[in-house]
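Fold it.
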Amino acid sequence: MWVSAPSRTEAPVPAPRQELSPRELETLRHIAAGRTYLQTARAMGVSPHTVDTYLRRIRAKLGLAGTAELTRVAIALGL
């Protein structure tokens, strides 16, 4: 007897764009595009540590755990 796996549904996007600062949104765009912290930092004119700080703030505001979730949210927000 075969048992089908339960269907997996994506969690809704946890927060609207308005909760993120313009720099956080810019950082999220770069990371979602597959850029590294160093590439993102150079494009934004900041240090990689600053990129890490922006990403930690985004995760805290949106209740996310990792880069995959950040990317999913960026796509859902149309970034």
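The CA atoms of residues 17 and 77 lie 7 Å apart.
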